[in-house]
Amino acid sequence: MTQQIIIATAAFFGMLSVIFGAFGAHALKNILSNEQLHSFEVGVKYQMYHAIVLLVLGFNHNGISAAIYWCFTIGILLFSFSIYGLVLSSAKGKKLRFLGPITPIGGMLLVIGWLLVLINAF
């Protein structure tokens, strides 16, 4: 993975998390229940946390493995975006239940990404 791709991916996910956070705080606050809004916010937070990690890894591009990059990138997509889909579809009364099992797969990829960062440190 090139440094530019890592930084661009981080910037894209960071930008989207700000947009989604604002969307949740303003457009969705009167539509979603408190529990749904909390779930949506969890997706936004995890997306931003991992965007920041990708950014740091990109700027310190000392051998970040493609596996770390892909674990975080796919993990963000599966974890955060499945939460967004679940919450928004539930608010419309047509919950996309198939997304439920996808969220923990994304979470596991984020954990594996962190494990790879730990291994890479040694």
TrEMBL record:
Membrane topology recorded in Swiss-Prot or TrEMBL: Multi-pass membrane protein
KW Metal-binding (keyword) present: no
Segments passing through the bilayer: 6-28, 40-61, 67-86, 98-119
Principal location class: membrane
Keywords: Membrane, Transmembrane, Transmembrane helix
GO CC entries: plasma membrane
Location relative to the cell: Membrane
InterPro entries on file: DUF423 (IPR006696)
Family: Belongs to the UPF0382 family.
Protein name: DUF423 domain-containing protein
